[in-house]
TrEMBL record:
The gene is aspB. Residues 31-386 form the Aminotransferase class I/classII large domain. Keywords: Aminotransferase, Pyridoxal phosphate, Transferase. GO terms for molecular function: pyridoxal phosphate binding; transaminase activity. The keyword Oxidoreductase does not apply. Pfam families: Aminotran_1_2. It comes from Cellulomonas pakistanensis. This is Aminotransferase.
C-alpha cells in the first residue's frame, strides 16, 4: 500500500538517546537525563488543585473550537500585564500545545509550494511540519555573528522571495533572544514584502538578568504581538514557563485575516483543545500560578550558572549565548567525535543523556550538542561533574 511522501520526515535523534537512557534505567543503571526540554517540576499546585476539582464534578465537555472564553480572556489579560499590549480575546486561539498551534498556523497561512525561511540551527519541528505540508523550507545559516538569529540582510540576499518567516526568541536549541530592534525590523520587512511572520515565544518568561538582549519586565523578551495588525502570528504555550508539558495546551495570537480560517481548521482537526487542561489552565494566570513559575525560573538560573561557570573545565569554548530558555548549545568537535557518537558514548560510559546537534542543524550539527538544564540544580551539577570527568578520558 502507498505511504505518503509528506510523511517522510526525519525522526528526532534525541528519541534514540531517550530510548537508550530508558533501557539503561530499566537495567538498574544510573541515568541523568539532560536531553529533553521538559521542566522537572510539573504544573503548579494551583493548577493541579483546580484540575482535581474539575475531575470531581466539573463540566469537561467540548469547548469552542478556539478555546473557552475564560481562558482566551485570561491570555489576553496576560499580554496587558506582561507587555502592555491590548489583545482582543477574539484573536486568541487556544491550541493543543504549541505543536497544534504551528500546524494550524501553517495550514492557514501557507499553500503547497510556498517558501518559508527559518534559522539554522533551530527547532526541527518547524521544518518538518512545513515539509509535511508541502512547503519549501529555506534555511538561513545563523552563527555567532548574528547571535544565531536571522536578519533582514539574509532575507534581502535570497535569490528568490519567500512567503513566510519563522523566528524564535528565546530559541531552541541556542537559547538566544532577538532584541527588540531586530524583531521590529524583521516584522517591518515582512509587512513591506507581504511575508507572513510567525513568532515562536514559548520560552518567554525564562530569561536571565545577564542576557545582553533581555527586555525589562517579566517576559524578558520582546513580543511580536505588536505586529498583529501587519499579519504576524504569535505562538506560545503553557509547557515551558508554566511547566505544563503533558497538558498539551498552547495558544496563537492571530491577525484578522487568519482568525476565521484557523477557527474552521481547528473545528475540523480537533474539535477543541483538551477541556480539562483549558479550565485548569486559567489558574496559571493567578498570582499563585505566576509565583510557582517564577520559582522554577530561579532554579533554571542556578543550574545555568553551574554550567556556564564550568565551561572552561568542560573545554567548551564555542557556546551559543544562553540568554533564555534552559539550554546550553556547545561545540564538542575538539573531542574528535561527531555529536551522535559523543552523546552515545557519554550515555554509555558516564550515564548522562544529552542531545546531538544533528536534530537542530543538518549541516553543522555533527559538531554540536544541546544540554538541557531544566532538571533540578543538584541533578545538573552532578551531570556536569560526570561530563567533565568523562571528557578527561577521551
Amino acid at each position: 500500500m502507498k505511504v505518503s511522501a509528506r510523511s517522510q520526515v526525519p525522526p528526532f535523534a534525541v528519541m534514540d538517546i531517550v530510548a537508550a537512557a530508558n533501557a539503561r534505567r530499566a537495567a538498574g543503571q544510573s541515568v541523568l537525563n539532560l536531553c529533553v526540554g521538559e521542566p522537572s517540576t510539573g504544573a503548579s499546585d494551583v493548577v493541579r488543585e483546580r484540575a482535581a476539582q474539575l475531575l470531581a464534578g466539573g463540566d469537561l465537555g467540548y469547548t469552542e473550537a478556539l478555546g473557552s472564553p475564560a481562558l482566551r480572556a485570561a491570555i489576553a489579560g496576560h499580554y496587558r500585564s506582561w507587555y502592555g499590549v491590548d489583545v482582543d480575546p477574539a484573536r486568541v486561539a487556544v491550541t493543543t500545545g504549541s505543536s497544534g498551534g504551528f500546524m494550524l498556523a501553517f495550514l492557514a497561512a501557507f499553500d503547497v509550494g510556498d517558501r518559508v525561511a527559518l534559522a539554522r540551527p533551530g527547532y526541527p519541528a518547524y521544518k518538518n511540519i512545513l515539509a509535511s505540508l508541502g512547503c519549501e523550507v529555506v534555511e538561513l545559516p545563523c552563527g555567532p555573528e548574528t547571535r544565531y538569529q536571522p536578519t533582514v540582510e539574509q532575507l534581502e540576499a535570497l535569490d528568490r522571495p519567500v512567503d513566510g518567516l519563522v523566528v524564535a526568541g528565546p530559541a531552541n536549541p541556542t537559547g538566544t533572544l532577538i532584541d527588540r530592534a531586530s524583531l521590529d525590523g524583521l516584522a517591518a520587512w515582512c509587512a513591506e514584502h507581504g511575508v507572513r511572520l510567525v513568532s515562536d515565544e514559548i520560552y518567554h518568561g525564562i530569561t536571565y538578568s545577564d542576557a545582553v538582549a533581555a527586555e525589562p519586565g517579566p517576559a524578558g523578551a520582546p513580543t511580536a504581538a505588536t505586529s498583529l495588525g501587519s499579519g504576524t502570528v504569535v505562538v506560545n504555550s503553557f509547557s515551558k514557563f508554566w511547566a505544563m508539558t503533558g497538558w498539551r495546551l498552547g495558544w496563537l495570537l492571530l491577525p484578522d485575516d487568519l482568525a476565521a480560517p484557523v477557527d474552521a481548521l481547528a473545528g475540523n482537526v480537533a474539535l477543541c483543545p483538551p477541556a480539562l487542561a483549558q479550565h485548569a489552565g486559567v489558574a496559571a494566570f493567578t498570582p499563585e500560578g505566576y509565583a510557582a513559575a517564577e520559582a522554577n525560573v530561579a532554579q533554571y538560573a542556578a543550574s545555568r550558572r553551574t554550567v556556564l561557570d564550568r565551561l572552561p573545565e568542560l573545554g567548551w569554548s564555542r557556546v551559543a549565548p544562553a540568554d533564555g530558555a534552559f539550554y546550553v548549545y556547545a561545540d564538542v568537535s575538539a573531542s574528535g567525535l561527531d555529536s551522535r557518537a559523543w552523546c552515545a558514548r557519554l550515555l554509555d560510559e558516564a550515564g548522562v543523556a544529552l542531545t546531538p546537534g544533528t536534530d537542530f542543524d543538518s549541516v553543522d550539527g555533527h559538531d554540536w550538542v544541546r544540554l538541557s538544564f531544566a532538571s533540578a540544580p543538584a541533578v545538573v551539577a552532578e551531570a556536569v561533574d560526570r561530563v567533565a570527568a568523562w571528557q578527561r578520558t577521551l
